[in-house]
Amino acid sequence: MEVAKLTNITRNFKVGEVETRALRGVDLSIQSGEFTALVGPSGSGKTTLLQLIGCLDQPTSGTVVINGQDATKLTRNQRADLRKVTLGFIFQFFALIPTLTAYENIEMPLLLNRQKDSERKVRVNELLKAVSLEDRAHHRPDQLSGGQQQRVAIARALATNPVIILADEPTANLDTENGKQVMEIMQKLNKETGVTFIFATHDPRVISYANRVVTLEDGMITKDASR
Question: How many helices (H) and strands (E) does the chain have?
Answer without folding.
Answer: 7, 10
